[in-house]
Amino acid sequence: MNTNKRDMTMSIDKGQIVGTIVGIIPSMLVVILYYQLWRKDITDALLIFDNIVIDILLYIAILVTLIIIHEVLHCVGFLTCKEVQLKDVKIDVWWKKLTPFATCSKAVDIRTYRFSIMLPTVILGILPVLYALLTGNNFVMLYAIIMLASGGGDMAVMWMLRKEKRGVTVKDHPTKMGCELYDSI
Ligand SMILES: [Zn+2]
């Protein structure tokens, strides 16, 4: 079977800029909506203990945990594809950019790829945002909007793939943001 390969990537530098813009816009809108609904300052959720040092350490610990869960969820998404095994997925860090990432060395169908790309932002961002909008839970809202914003790069990749149809095979790019697409001819 012949295949036609297409590049759907951007450099990490460009990806970070685009991802930040794509992530910040929905997060800002949510913050405004939340304030309109509940009149609460979400930064109050940073102050839990009387000790600012403990509050900062707690904030960092929660954030690091959520970032790790975000990458694990990408891997879980990839693993829903029958052909993908645990050895095919990995979590690593671009130390120069201090950016963690998950990648899959096997090509998957585009449905699996989209699912894997969006899973962390849905579970850690969109669903908790909806919960916090309904309940006024400041603590959940604070971390939900951070995770929504940090899903900007993933949302940008989803946007790049918006016109792709079923039947396309996708291979995650190991050193750039995005993927390579293979059309069967
Ligand atoms: Zn991600």
Beta-sheet strand percentage? 15-25%
What is the count of β-strands? 6
Please work out how many helical segments DSSP would assign.
5
* Strand order of the biggest β-sheet: 1-6-5-4
The arrangement of helices and strands along the chain is EHHEEEHHHEE
Task: Give unreliable regions as ranges.
Answer: none
The residue fraction in helices comes out at 55-70%
- Please compute the radius of gyration using only Cα atoms: 18 Å
Instruction: Calculate the mean pLDDT score and round it.
Output: 93
From the structure provided, what is the oligomeric state, counting identical versus distinct chains? single chain
Which ligands are bound? zinc ion
Inertia-based shape: elongated
**Most strands sheet:** 4 strands, antiparallel
Structural class: alpha+beta
Counting structural domains, the number is 1
Query: First CA to last CA: what distance?
Result: 7 Å
